[in-house]
Specification:
The chain has 1 helix and 3 strands; from the N terminus they run ββαβ. By secondary structure, it is α+β, with helices and mostly antiparallel strands. A hairpin with a 4-residue loop joins strand 1 and strand 2. It is elongated, with a radius of gyration of 20 Å.
Length: 86
Amino acid sequence: MEILTTLWLCIATITTSLGTIEYQDFNAYKTKEQCESVAKAAENYIIGVEKTRGREVLIKTFCLEIQSYKKEDKPEKEKKINETST
C-alpha cells in the first residue's frame, strides 16, 4: 500500500539591485508552522547578506503544500525480471 503524506516546501525568490532574479529552495517540513518559521529566518538571513554586500534586495518566501509518498523503513527488494520471457 502506498501512503501519501503532506510536506511543506520552503522556497525564496530573490531579486537584487543588480537586476538578477534567483530562487532558493531550503527544505521540506512536516508542518506549515515549521516551514513559515524557516521562511522568515531565511528572509532575514538573505537580507542581511545582501546589506553587507551593499545591495538592495526584494525577497518573497513561499511555503508550498506538496504531497509525497512516505519513505519506507525497509528498502523494497528488487524484483527479478524473467529474462526468458518474450
